[in-house]
Amino acid sequence: ASAQVVEQAGFPAVATSSGAVAAALGFDDSDSMPVDEAFAAVSRVASSVSVPVTGDMEAGYGLEPVDLARRLIEAGAVGCNLEDTDHHGDSDLVEPQSHAKRIQEIKEHARKLGVDIVLNARVDVFLRRESFDRATFEEGVARARLYLEAGADCIYPIGLSDHVMIGELVSLLQAPINIMMRQDTPPIPRLTELGVARVSFAGWLMRKAYSTLLEDVTAIAKQAGLASS
Fold first, then answer.
1. How many Å apart are CA 117 and CA 200, to the nearest integer?
2. What is the C-alpha separation between 137 and 31, in angstroms, rounded?
3. Which of 29, 85, 131, 179 is deepest in the core (most CB within 10 A)?
């Protein structure tokens, strides 16, 4: 239903949110959704709209690149988010060279299947590092460059909100950049001025919708004498 609302609003594409999908299905947003359910959700979204759909596939659910590409395309999507958080190992982030190789193989397998998917490579240093300093920024740049060289179409430095650093990242990479909106993120017109190509709202729209639902249901409960305050 929300995908159809996005299409009705005039947007030329729909992107799923792994946080929203996981919550709707009763799972944590931690690369732990059952694979069949994750792709079934993407398939239902893709079949409900006439615009292109990109799926937030978290870290890929442990699938081999060929299987991730195949299942994504079979679900009807033409793009995906892929994060570099290490959900299943001992580190906070996966090793960048191996992740770049994974990106390259996903892109190659998708092209062999007839779809040059848009791969939005999430760079999670700004979320996973304990401190946010110049070294963190430079690590993010280094990872982003590796992913772009491997064939990523867009870089998603999730958690980066400082307008100066956003502008610098756009200038350094000379590639499409995706920024996540949050309270301290510059407004969309300013992001446009900075050269940002894509803006994500992650699970914010879902949380806002559920907050409204909670208010309405609480009011109904009060009217029915089921709530004391």
1. 18
2. 25
3. 179
